[in-house]
Amino acid sequence: MAKNKLSIYLIKDGVQENNEIFKNDLLELRVYNENKIAYYVRSNSHQPTWLNNFFEITDAALFQANAKVVLLVKRIYEERLRLFALTFGYAKPLFKEGVLEEQFGLKIVLNTVKENELRKISKLNIGGNQKQSQEQIPKTGKISDFGFNIYSDLMRNVTAATTDERFGKAIITGGDIFSITVDKNIHNIEEFLDYCYSKYNDMSYKNNFDWLDNIKAVRSKDLIESLNDYVIEKIQNQDLENIWMAVPDVINWEQVKCFKYSGSRDEFDDIKIEKVLETFDNLDELTMDKFKNKTIKVISAENESEILSWSAQKCLIAEIEYQNKSFCLNNGKWYQVDNNFELIVKREYDNLTISELNLPSYSSNGEEFYTENEYNENLATSINAALIHRIGEIPYGGGTGNKIEVCDILTNNKELIHIKKAGGSSVLSHLFNQAAVSAEALLDSDFREKYNRKLTEEGMTEYIDNNFKSSNYTIILGIISKYNDARPKIPFFSKVAIRYMVKTLSNLGYQIKIKNIPNLDD
Fold first, then answer.
1. 391: phi then psi, degrees, rounded to nearest 5
2. What does the angle CA 290 – CA 296 – CA 299 come to, to the nearest 5 degrees?
């Protein structure tokens, strides 16, 4: 029997009718029985547009048509009806949003393969800049071979080699879709789908890939709407304890004069949810769409032009309990967090040591412009420490573009202090990454030599450490926020990111402490 490339989806439980599944009406191609029917969309044969646009010719012998066929197969498992969809040609766009079972193929693959049989992954970083990427290795390997961070990366798709006889010892790929080339056709597909379903429901993936369920992107349109409505209701009731707004991207605060919100002529020194809400005409009629339509602009301190802008919804951060489950809104996207994982992350964050160093509050004292640099200068003076920020960045590794700022402040007690205004997860992840990269660079003797040369040039020779030991150093993360608590209040995904950083730097010998710096201007 010839092998066929199969693309298999599982329709969500309870969704059974064609008008619930497909965007448009489909035509019946063949009814094999009442539980197995093939549908199609009539192909529109036409000449390629590039034939006339580029070559400026027409030719009846050249045409294209995108075939779209879907086979729906109904199966009963423990008196429950489940519906499979096999797509052929260009049929994937025919489905309505939110009707396909998420991670169907992903779980099949991870329940089938060994931990060292992975070939390619597609991932999304949720603790930082929402970067999407794909990585592939020439031979099979473990998840650690892909630079995958199990604490802050979501796996979207995975390709792996399997020794499973039922899957033909093939290369298989899984995300929402399960993709495989195998010797099956219309006459023996049911038994194969039953095996796929058994693999989907298996729990053996937890042996090697237990982190998979820690965090999931919410893709159900109905659930997203329910979560949006729930957050809006909390905002309308002024229940803002776990809802706030922040700069969603890393920005250069030295270049910022102010922020402006559409609907207001006022200027603001930060993004504050209380002030943003005042720009809406009627909170009783507030919706998430109105947050999406409201623009927040960053105004240049140099020429008062607009530097950046975001929708207010992208700046909105929320951590909520909904129907006994934990959810986070971050950078405009909803994520579901496993309750046990959430408890672990929060417990570890709450156990981080708070620095006893006396860091003054952040206050402009009436000055029109007051920056992080000015705060650092005042801080260095008040605690009699070195303003390392002044010596600038130092080249590290190969190339001229890789430069590192060691820290903002260095004390006589070997405390490396990094200061940053609170923001969204991407902003704080940038802070944590800076601290981690700096700590790693300091282990390199060539880098320390360049660093010591800079200290000498700036007259800071008393801070040169000729017998460097990482265990003698403490890294302090100072976060400027509107809160007065000793422990900084940060988004959940920032707690995920700092968890990873602490484990990494602790293994290198450093001590890690945190410190909240109240912003009196808020």
1. -80, -5
2. 165
